[in-house]
Amino acid sequence: KKQYRVAVIPGDGIGKEVAPEGLRVLEQAAKKHGVSVHFDHFDFASWDYYEKHGEMMPEDWKAKIGKHDAIYFGAVGWPAKIPDHVSLWGSLIKFRREFDQYVNLRPVRLMPGVPSPLANRKPGDIDFWVVRENTEGEYSSVGGRMFPDTDREFVTQQTVMTRIGVDRILKFAFELAQSRPKKHLTSATKSNGISITMPYWDERVEAMAKNYPKVKWDKYHIDILTANFVLHPDWFDVVVGSNLFGDILSDLGPACTGTIGIAPSGNINPEGHFPSVFEPVHGSAPDIAGQGIANPIGMIWSGAMMLEHLGEKQAAASIVAAIERTLGERTLRTRDLGGNADTVACGKAVAEMV
Amino acid sequence: KKQYRVAVIPGDGIGKEVAPEGLRVLEQAAKKHGVSVHFDHFDFASWDYYEKHGEMMPEDWKAKIGKHDAIYFGAVGWPAKIPDHVSLWGSLIKFRREFDQYVNLRPVRLMPGVPSPLANRKPGDIDFWVVRENTEGEYSSVGGRMFPDTDREFVTQQTVMTRIGVDRILKFAFELAQSRPKKHLTSATKSNGISITMPYWDERVEAMAKNYPKVKWDKYHIDILTANFVLHPDWFDVVVGSNLFGDILSDLGPACTGTIGIAPSGNINPEGHFPSVFEPVHGSAPDIAGQGIANPIGMIWSGAMMLEHLGEKQAAASIVAAIERTLGERTLRTRDLGGNADTVACGKAVAEMV
Ligand SMILES: CC(C)[C@H](C(=O)O)[C@@H](O)C(=O)O
Ligand SMILES: CC(C)[C@H](C(=O)O)[C@@H](O)C(=O)O
Predict the structure, then answer these.
(1) Among candidates A154, A155, A230 on the partner chain, residue whose Cβ is nearest the Cβ of B255
(2) Which of A163, A243, B148, B322 lies 20 to 30 A from A124 at CA?
(3) Cβ contacts of residue B166 below 8 Å, gap of 6+?
């Protein structure tokens, strides 16, 4: 029987507070469902590590965590101490690129006990996935500046879409749509304005759709698509977008369901050649770090996504069900959701219900 | 006393139905406030014209409309008959580029009688402007494809930001913020992911802010900014963004206030070297065209923005007030807003209240 090895990286700020709660729940779910997981803890990919070593990660970071079955990640970044391009590009975005985690997967689901900013929506009304391309597109490193400090000054940056990069994310999204009852895929585009890369994206969607005759698909320009997230969130089942469009939709979606504070995410290498990273969508939140009040649900839910990815569907489902029950009780929710539990109390509540 | 000359281009679909109502209201407001406007009507920039002439506009379109004080535009596009890149790039986007309409300005305002999709928001709670760069940025024409139909295939498209282009839109936005009671400017960025152009944008914002010490300014990454449109729309006063970010925010904003069906917009050349275009945000809506049920408020409100731009503030304000009173009456609203008026009845109602 397989023993999973998971690398745990709490990172910065509230990452360090929510990670123990995520582990508490994971350990409990594993015990209950007879899953064997070994956790290795790492202190890099954090400001603390950077302060000591002058870099975000050790030289041999790939040797240290590249053979694990998954990486369980808290949060990174502390803008007042270290610029984002150092902290994020030195860890999170490095993982995405160098571990070829080309899928960024995030659920958008209205949960019990979480007040939606949208009028008249209740749990069950909103339940879809955002599939984001996670390695290329608008987040390229190609471009530059000319004629600095003159009136002729300009900067350019290329959006890059490769056939391989586009096709593999679309395939993942169509597969996911096909596996769901509604079998509905929505593609985010902007081919009426961004006239070279986006028509290419549309072209590849059309080609890929031919392999999935059972999937009903449509496309919306990103402007009206964001409007429809607010006006008609019930329309969606699986939504696929480029790196930038997926980034936007996977923050807007959770906001429509009440808070990005509980949203989980997976940075996934579907082939399993490299470990995938599971992390809450929220950041390190320096403003509330150290107070023990952070909401651990995003971290815990990311743990469920990790178990699902490893193939442990029952253990994963038991965590999601426990989250729903915990959120449903005012006394077990954290303060950001109008409850009065602290981080540890909320984590313990979920663990007990697993 | 000045007589204004306005070019009227109804365009396609419901553009032809809402333009007469816009004109009805404009004529009434002009009469009441002693403003003299002459309207010249043009049939180009439409599918009908394209069908007859094989092009969207005549060769000498600039001679025909380039000397007018403004252009009052309905809607263009009919995807089933003519591809967007022909219809839009052959008219609307051509105007923006060749008449150097570098500001796209759109109000986000919760109006009486329009149900907001957001819970617990009432008229007065949401009232801000989106200022969008309208000529460069992500809508460039630079890029291409290599290795077609092979595994090496890729496409690239450059985002281009010029010092002149960025500084002038930021100046417009800071000026607008400075003229408002709250004096608050929010800049849309994504410098943590789009690592060359967006840090440049941030740099120019910081430099421009030095000229406007009375303006309080902040910046958000576009992902969390869209989330905050939903969660905290009351935070905003003036929001400035690149061509793409502004496009997204100026559809999402109106959606948060209930509908993009009533939103107006101005494509403005602030120096007045070229005419500016005022048009509703909605498109030609082929699905409801010809039925006389289209909501004319977006067109009418665009007329108010046009008068404001021409310096006729009182006449403009009287139209906005008349729109608010009309929307407040269920029997005067169109069906998309739960009323039972048709296009003409709604237009007449606004004209009477002007
Ligand atoms: C039609 C399209 C090209 C246009 C744009 O993206 O600029 C529209 O969405 C708008 O906002 O005016
Ligand atoms: C921190 C930032 C670079 C990152 C992104 O834009 O990818 C974040 O917003 C996310 O969605 O994971």
Answers:
(1) A230
(2) A243
(3) B133, B200, B201, B204
